[in-house]
Each structure stands twice: as structure tokens, then as C-alpha cells.
Design goal:
By secondary structure, the protein is an alpha/beta fold. It folds into 2 domains: about 140 residues, 3-Layer(aba) Sandwich (Rossmann fold), CATH 3.40.50; about 160 residues, Aspartate/ornithine carbamoyltransferase (Rossmann fold, 3-Layer(aba) Sandwich), CATH 3.40.50. It is about 40% helix and about 15% strand. The chain contains 13 helices and 9 strands. The strands form 2 sheets. Strands 7-6-5-8-9 form a 5-stranded parallel sheet. Helix 1 crosses helix 13, helix 6 packs across helix 7 and helix 7 runs parallel beside helix 8. The two termini are about 30 Å apart.
Length: about 325
């Protein structure tokens, strides 16, 4: 992907977070370390003191994203300006570029949960403030930061040096072509994980994303594998993750997806192939009896509630890190 290069009002090169690999492996580690520190002391950083506003725009349904960003921005000393995308209709009533120029004159950062990755990139090119991807059809990088933080907490912490989670294996089973599949590949490779995607034919990651992840893994010491057999993907894994079979905007495909995805349901039989102390992730909302069974998501291996909480800490760390790089914190 092409991340725009722009400058802040202070003349400092801006950093955005539009996809997982907008951070280097070392930078990802910095964000995760900061997230752990902010979780231990929630009000230790106040980069938005004033308070300064952050625009948080939702074109798609939300619960965890809205609550975690609104709470996190307030804890950073700021003010979350939540914008209803159905009313703003960015790109319809007003161009993305004009909207970006207006918002960038008034807020410290922009968080956008929307459909097209290209619209997010256009926002970043014109805003003059850091722009954060709160989910697009292509990537869900904030969720992956929270997942990596959760993995660190439950599988031995951050590595002492180098990639944050080197030596551990993550298996994702389900729709490998969705935004979670893409972000697990890129974010997991940056963290030094051995990432396996188990997905049916026709629902596997785009080759371009796999190639980007393979290039990252070659530098971090991780690995990337895409396969069709769910049990092979899960075999010996330290972390097993899944997601809904029907992402937002795909509701009309729900019936046709049932049969191909049924062998990828995360139940106790499939989880038995993982490491004995493996943990289970799900970004939520979960559909018990579909992609995951109740006995697994409510069972002892599940860490999904820690994962949900960690959206707050990971996103606070990310915003602080981006504002630091923009020269907007002391």
C-alpha cells in the first residue's frame, strides 16, 4: 500500500496508521511497550490535554471501537468528537479531500471506520493531522495491536529484544480474505510470529498481501503459511483466532458461506490440535454455534474479554505514539 507523506502544522513529518505495516517491527514493539505501561498506569500520559478534540468517524456499525476510542481519548486528556457517518456522508455530500482539510484545521487527529481503504488514504493525504484506520474492508490494524498485546500478556510477555512476539505461533481459521486475515498476516509477521491462515478455497488472502507478509517475515524471523486444512493450521499453535464468516457488507452471502466454512468452526475438537496451553482470540461480535462454539469462547482457553479491553490500551498507545512523532506532545 502507499501511505501518504505529509507534514504537521509544526512542519514535522506526519505518521499515519492506515495498515499494519505502516509501523516497522521496532515501532510496533514501541507501541506495545507503551500500551503495557498505559495499562499499568492509565493516566500517566496526557498528550491531548487542553482538552484537544479527536474526530472519530463511523460509517459502519460499532460498539467496541466507539467505546474504546472515546474512553481512551478522554483518558489521554482529550475530547472525542464522535461523527455519525450516515449524517456526514463523507465522499457524497462533500469530497474526502475537503472534509480532511476542514477536520485537520480543528482536531488533533482523525479516526475513521469506513469501507474503502482508498478513501482513508485520501483523508490522510489532505488532513495535516495523524489519521488512524479504525477498520476498513481491507485492514483492521487497531484490533491486531490489541490482539498482540493480549498474546504478550498470556504467552510470556514481549520478547526481550527484536520482534515483539518472536517464536510463537498464531493460527487464524475462517475467512482468510477478510480484513482480519490481512491484518493478522501483516501485523503478525511484524511481531515475528509464525502466522498460519486456514481458509477454504476462494476465501484465502490476496497474493499481494501474502507477499508483503512474507517479505516482512523474512526480516523479522517469523513465517507465513496459507492452507486449506484447518487442523493443520491449528496444529501446535500457541494462539488460535477466528472471526465471523460474514463480514459487514456481506450479509447477502450468509447462506452460501455456511457450507464452505463449517469445517473451520472453532470447537473443542479443532482446538485440541493446538498446544495444550493455547489461548483463543475473537475480535467480536461472536456468533456462537457458527464460527466458534460456546464451549470454546466461554471456556478456559478464551482470552477474548482481555482482548476486548486491550483495544483501549493499544489505541491509547498508538495515538500517543503518533502525536509524539507529529511533535504535538511535550
Amino acid at each position: 500500500m502507499t501511505t501518504p507523506t505529509t507534514t504537521s502544522a509544526a512542519g514535522t513529518a506526519l505518521r499515519h496508521f492506515l495498515a499494519d505495516d505502516d509501523l516497522t517491527s521496532a515501532e510496533q514493539r514501541e507501541v506495545l511497550e507503551l500500551a503495557l505501561a498505559l495499562k499499568a498506569d492509565r493516566h500517566s500520559r496526557q498528550p491531548l490535554a487542553g482538552p484537544r478534540a479527536v474526530a472519530v468517524i463511523f460509517d459502519k456499525p460499532t460498539l467496541r471501537t466507539q467505546v474504546s476510542f472515546a474512553t481512551g481519548i478522554a483518558e489521554l486528556g482529550g475530547f472525542p468528537l464522535v461523527v455519525d457517518g450516515n449524517l456526514a456522508r463523507i465522499g457524497v455530500r462533500e469530497s474526502v479531500a475537503d472534509t480532511a482539510r476542514v477536520l485537520g484545521r480543528q482536531v488533533a487527529a482523525i479516526v475513521w471506520r469506513t469501507f474503502a481503504q482508498s478513501a482513508l488514504e485520501e483523508m490522510a493525504a489532505q488532513a495535516g493531522v495523524p489519521v488512524v484506520n479504525a477498520l476498513t474492508d481491507d485492514y483492521h490494524p487497531c484490533q491486531i495491536l490489541a490482539d498482540l498485546l493480549t498474546i504478550a500478556e498470556h504467552t510470556g510477555g514481549l520478547a526481550r529484544s527484536g520482534p515483539a512476539l518472536a517464536g510463537r505461533t498464531l493460527a487464524f481459521v475462517g475467512d482468510g480474505a477478510n480484513n482480519m486475515g490481512n491484518s493478522y498476516l501483516l501485523g503478525g509477521a511484524l511481531a515475528g510470529l509464525d502466522v498460519r491462515i486456514g481458509a477454504p478455497e476462494g476465501y484465502q488472502p490476496h497474493p499481494d498481501v501474502v507477499a508483503r507478509a512474507e517479505a516482512i517475515a523474512a526480516e523479522t524471523g517469523g513465517s507465513v503459511a496459507v492452507m486449506t486444512e484447518a487442523a493443520y493450521a491449528v496444529a501446535g499453535a500457541d494462539v488460535v483466532a477466528t472471526d465471523t464468516w460474514v463480514s459487514m457488507g456481506q450479509e447477502e452471502q450468509a447462506a452460501e458461506r455456511e457450507a464452505p466454512f463449517l469445517p473451520y468452526r472453532l470447537d473443542s475438537r479443532l482446538l485440541a490440535h493446538a498446544a495444550p496451553d493455547a489461548v483463543v482470540l475473537h475480535c467480536l461480535p461472536a456468533y456462537r454455534g457458527k464460527e466458534i462454539t460456546a464451549e470454546v469462547i466461554d471456556g478456559p482457553a478464551s482470552v477474548v474479554w482481555d482482548e476486548a479491553e486491550n483495544r483501549l490500551h493499544a489505541q491509547k498507545a498508538l495515538l500517543t505514539w503518533l502525536l509524539d512523532r507529529a511533535g504535538e506532545t511535550g
